[in-house]
Amino acid sequence: MILSYYSSPLNPIKKCQIEVKSMVLVLTTTRFPVNKGREVSERYIAVEKEFPPDRSLSKVILRLAARIDGDEIEGIGLSEVKEGKYEEFLKRMMKMTLKYADIEGFSSKSEVFLSGVDALPMVGLEMPE
Question: Residue 119 maps to which CATH number?
């Protein structure tokens, strides 16, 4: 996987690319109105049955955590994607997310992270023990 970043917020023209040959963490956040809680939860159970965890693609670190935030419910999940499996993982995740497309007010986003062990060497440092 190739990660692109800008070397400085003040100098966005100088774009750098680094090839990452490690696992990545994907944090998925969903939000939906409180009054859709049962509908989304029932759909979640159905989607989990249709797409059970695929250990060849990722390790589930946090399957589901949820909270009420104002008039919305926010849910998160965290997976560690295996090396070389990000594209396949992403396609699978998109298929799963599309199962919620007809639920009014539902939104989802996925964020990709590197662990400190993998990220710090990119700037010439190592994670302390």
Answer: 3.30.70.1150
pLDDT of residue 22: 64
| Residues contacting 43, CB < 8 A, separation 6+ | 99, 100, 103
Averaged pLDDT for residues 54-65: 96
Predicted confidence at residue 54, as pLDDT, reads 96
pTM: 0.79
Is pLDDT above 60 for 20?
Answer: no
Q: Is residue 9 situated within a structural domain? A: no
Domain-located, residue 118: yes
Domain limits for position 57: 22-123
For residue 66, is it within any domain? Answer: yes
